[in-house]
Amino acid sequence: MNKKELVAALADKCGTSQAQAGEFVNAFTETVTQSLKDGNPVALPGFGQFIAKHRESREMRNPATGKMMMSKAKTSAQFKPSVGLKDL
Prior knowledge:
By secondary structure, the protein is α+β, with helices and mostly antiparallel strands. It has helices spanning 3-14, 18-37, 83-86; strands at 42-44, 48-55, 59-61, 68-70, 74-81. Strand 1 (42-44) and strand 2 form a beta hairpin.
């Protein structure tokens, strides 16, 4: 399911227009993104949890040249499904 299909399904389920459902999806993604940037997890009981996972820089081998180099430290988003979602 892509974003357009999600917006259409939400509009159908909630009885709203696709424009309103699209605004909701955009607001939801912006809110989750901002919360993760601030270092706060977003938990949705029965669905799962979005967390910001920090990865330290580490020494790695460049596969093209075989030389050792340092990777960059980075923070990425991770989703952990709840037990109820895992059982699907």
